[in-house]
Amino acid sequence: MKEWTLLGILVRVVLILLTMQSSSDGFVCEKDAVHCHTSLKIDNAFTMIDPINGPLFVDEGTLRPILQPDKEVSIENVITADGWNTTLPLLTANKSMPGPPIFLYQNQTITIIVQNNLINEAVTIHWHGIDQLGWPAMDGVAFVTQCPILPGQFFNYTFQPRFSGTYWYHSHVGNQRDMGLYGAFIVLKRKGEVPIKNQHIIHLQEWNHKFGPITLLKANLNNTSSSSESILINGKGEFENNEAPHEVFQ
Ligand SMILES: *[C@@H]1O[C@H](CO)[C@@H](O)[C@H](O)[C@H]1NC(C)=O
Ligand SMILES: *[C@@H]1O[C@H](CO)[C@@H](O)[C@H](O)[C@H]1NC(C)=O
Ligand SMILES: *[C@@H]1O[C@H](CO)[C@@H](O)[C@H](O)[C@H]1NC(C)=O
Ligand SMILES: *[C@@H]1O[C@H](CO)[C@@H](O)[C@H](O)[C@H]1NC(C)=O
Ligand SMILES: *[C@@H]1O[C@H](CO)[C@@H](O)[C@H](O)[C@H]1NC(C)=O
Ligand SMILES: *[C@@H]1O[C@H](CO)[C@@H](O)[C@H](O)[C@H]1NC(C)=O
């Protein structure tokens, strides 16, 4: 009974805080642009919760509210992860996991405004693999190249990637990256590049039911941290053959 009370509290928090959007196609800097501008909005979120119907479970591939098991819920506003029917805390960029991909061309300057809408955690975003030669303050490593962005604040990341490649961005604070705060960062070649519409991004991710910050901390303290419960492809996978929805490539 205690668990249901806790769940009730979570649902109320979620209903107030979240109006989820479906994951975005991301941002593409036009090929002839010299300087592009985009943003990432960082929010608290939860797995397996629908903003209207509350906590969900997976029933042979269909999402249903735990409190109204006869009803079907669309995945559109839900981050399922592996469909485990216990709600886990997430941190998202633009309300999706993974966050939206960012595409630009080699040597373009990009400005990404990172807005921290978290309730009580600071954040930074690291552009993994970008050498940041000339502007090391844009590397996004908390307490090394910048003070973390406090709740309610934003930070202007502006830099100019020199080398094309398939990179990613992720939080560089605590274990926020493991809680969903990551996405693709693609620097395209100027010539001979495969068109974006013919490219697919595949993120592989271990998913651990203990990645909530408190449980993970406890597990580390008493040396009981274990291997992951499931593997996600682009934020989606299954747990114990529960038939949770997979990523679909078109
Ligand atoms: C994130 O969402 C904002 C709108 O809230 C949009 O302007 C921006 O381009 C999005 N970022 C990416 C990388 O898609
Ligand atoms: C939730 O998942 C557990 C296994 O993790 C399962 O035993 C239980 O029946 C599931 N509950 C619902 C409502 O699907
Ligand atoms: C990118 O800029 C660097 C430094 O200005 C230059 O050496 C290099 O040739 C440029 N590469 C491309 C593909 O424009
Ligand atoms: C971010 O910094 C760049 C480079 O200094 C500047 O061009 C841009 O206007 C700034 N954007 C905001 C919203 O401050
Ligand atoms: C160790 O941490 C795990 C995960 O939080 C918890 O389930 C377990 O009860 C803890 N064991 C002890 C001895 O504290
Ligand atoms: C934690 O567990 C591992 C694996 O069982 C063991 O090798 C290690 O010595 C333990 N560390 C501590 C501090 O107990």
Structure, described:
- This protein is mainly beta and 250 residues long.
- It is 10% helix and 30% strand.
- A hairpin with a 2-residue loop joins strand 4 (54-59) and strand 5.
- The longest helix is centred in the first third of the chain and has 16 residues, at 2-17.
- The chain binds 2-acetamido-2-deoxy-beta-D-glucopyranose (6 copies).
- The site of one 2-acetamido-2-deoxy-beta-D-glucopyranose has 5 residues, from helix 2.
Q: Poorly predicted ranges (pLDDT <50, ≥5 residues)?
A: 1-23
Helix-strand makeup class: mainly beta
Name the CATH architecture of the domain at 27-192.
Sandwich
The H/E string reads HEEEEEEEEEEEEEHE
Features:
metal-binding; copper; 4-stranded mixed β-sheet; binds 2-acetamido-2-deoxy-beta-D-glucopyranose; disordered N terminus; 250 residues; oxidoreductase activity; Plastocyanin-like domain-containing protein; Cupredoxin; mainly beta
Care to give the gist of this entry?
By secondary structure, the chain is mainly beta. It has helices at residues 2-17, 213-221, and strands at 27-28, 35-46, 49-50, 54-59, 62-65, 89-93, 102-105, 109-116, 125-128, 154-159, 165-171, 182-188, 204-207, 230-233. The termini are far apart.
